[in-house]
Design brief:
alpha+beta, Chloramphenicol Acetyltransferase, 2 domains, four-stranded antiparallel sheet, 10 strands
Length: 334
């Protein structure tokens, strides 16, 4: 769609202009600034993989060790193999325990897109495809997008002084619409555990291909979830809101919004980040937040899609909300 030489020229010109502005004036996007606080592995995002089978564990461990010696990877982040294993850089570190692998990554330096690529390589899974930044699509829908954003109201809720983490696994799911089943399962859990009695504003992140001037290149679509939603109604809402991914991505890429102090996290109830791995390894895998959530709930989800087309959903819920009500907290990261 919209793939013609004039539009491609326009998109490339805008991206090159943004690249020049960001590098010349040393500007950072709001999203990058949000993640620029990590000093060591204890303040980084944490990915954990837990294996049932020793052979699976050893395969993935060897894949990681090989990746940590890849010179292109090391040059990209200006690190060494030893610093990854010994936890002496502030970008990425790895530790191995009995059938457990822990990866600490600095989301400021290593984007979600890059981390998803690394995770898939770890598990011998094909690298997923990501959206491309498209200023043309972002601009033509921008007025309607801004109109929708302006209707959002700032969210207020009582906070705890610490982040609660709760890990849930749903195994052997059979469905034709994996994306919407996943979102619906997560949204139902959020809605119930936060004791919501009104429509819930949810933001769903989408990964975009990396660009040289922005560390975290992503987009958001925002939908209104209701407890009566089905896979079909949710699918319809996501499709209607899909244009927002390009608009929000354009705003993240544009240098001008950095002069303002608008934080979308204050205007949504929850944020969902999800990815998938195609693998028959018997694993549990998830990631957590590096800092307390701004929104009521942040969910990091990894789906494992089997060769028989079944799916395991790994969901890690992060919240500081005092509304959170779940008597069976399972902290996967302890």
């Amino acid at each position: 769609m919209y793939s013609n030489p004039l539009i491609n020229l326009f998109n490339n010109s805008i991206i090159n202009l943004f690249n020049f502005i960001f590098k010349t004036f040393k500007i950072e996007t709001l999203e990058d600034k949000f993640h620029n606080h990590k000093k060591n592995s204890r303040s980084m995002n944490h990915v954990k993989a837990l294996f049932e089978n020793e052979d699976d564990y050893n395969i993935v461990k060897n894949n990681i060790l090989n990746m940590s010696e890849n010179q292109d990877f090391l040059n990209k982040y200006d690190i060494t193999t030893e610093s990854i294993i010994n936890d002496t850089n502030n970008k990425i570190a790895v530790s191995f325990n009995e059938k457990s692998i822990n990866i600490f990554f600095n989301h400021y330096h290593i984007s979600g897109t890059a981390m998803f690529v690394l995770l898939n390589k770890m598990f011998n899974s094909k690298t997923p495809s990501f959206l491309k930044t498209n200023p043309f699509l972002g601009l033509i829908n921008l007025p309607f997008y801004l109109y929708e954003i302006m209707k959002l109201k700032k969210k207020e809720y009582l906070k705890n002084d610490h982040n609660i983490e709760h890990f849930i696994v749903e195994k052997n799911v059979i469905t034709n619409n994996k994306r919407c089943y996943l979102c619906l399962s997560i949204l139902k859990e959020i809605y119930t555990s936060l004791k919501m009695d009104r429509p819930m504003i949810a933001a769903i992140t989408l990964g975009f291909e990396e660009l040289p001037y922005i560390n975290n290149n992503l987009g958001l679509i925002i939908i209104q979830y209701e407890i009566t939603d089905t896979i079909e109604t949710l699918d319809d809402k996501i499709k209607k809101a899909s244009y927002q991914a390009y608009c929000s991505n354009f705003i993240i890429n544009c240098p001008l919004p950095n002069f303002y102090n608008f934080e979308i996290r204050n205007y949504v109830d929850c944020i969902i980040s999800s990815m998938y791995i195609k693998s028959d390894f018997d694993i549990k895998v998830a990631w957590n937040c590096a800092r307390n959530t701004v929104e009521q709930m942040y969910v990091g989800s990894v789906s494992v899609i089997r060769s028989n087309n079944s799916m395991d959903i790994n969901m890690n819920f992060n919240t500081c909300s005092s509304n959170y009500n779940n008597p069976n907290i399972n902290n996967f990261f302890k």
